[in-house]
Amino acid sequence: ASQVEKGKEQELKEQFDALRREHTEILQELQRAHEQEKLLLVESHHRSEAALQETIQALNSQLKSFQERMKRVEESLLRTDYKKHIQEHGSPSPFWEQELESLHFVIEMKNEHIHGLDKKLLHLETVEERNLLLEEKVKTLQQENEDLQVRTQNHLIMARQLSEELQAAREALEKEAQLLDQARREKEELLYRVLNAGDGSPFPMAAGEVPLIAT
């Protein structure tokens, strides 16, 4: 019976060790995945910053280009449209010439402005899509982190329960071993008294041994 109980205890201990190893491996794997995702997220953030910096530079370049186009518009209106108009229709009054110049200039600039806004809108839509993807990645990473914490807590609870069961089994085994040892000594004492009935000799006890009957 003692060997069987020892076998049970060993089996419980092996199950506990296996569960602890499994918990450690799962935790390490989840932590590695978590760190990898964090690195990817940081790298993506750096790429986004670099892309935004490039965008700023591109916008500055577009502003310079726009200013150059504005200058060309002015030169074109003064050099071509009005010269052609004067050649075909004669020189208008100064008032209408100024009004026509202003109108052409405004129309040309509005066209340039609309074209620039179209490009900027397209870029902003692309940036917004990237931000939405980045937010989704952050939410996914947060959810994975929460799942990791829950799984870790569950494994700790299981490990604690198994440890308590193992301790209870160990105590039960020790108690049963004590009972078996007590029964064995009582049997030996009874057999000794039967074999040595009448000679008055006491039952021999080991040094420091307490009589079991007293317990």
From TrEMBL:
InterPro entries: MTUS1/CCDC69
Cellular compartments annotated: Cytoplasm, Cytoskeleton, Spindle; Midbody
Superkingdom as given in the UniProt entry: Eukaryota
Gene Ontology molecular function terms on file: microtubule binding
Key words of the record: Coiled coil, Cytoplasm, Cytoskeleton, Lipoprotein, Myristate
Coiled-coil annotated spans: 9-76, 124-193
GO CC, one annotated term: spindle
Family: Belongs to the CCDC69 family.
Name by which UniProt lists this protein: CCD69 protein
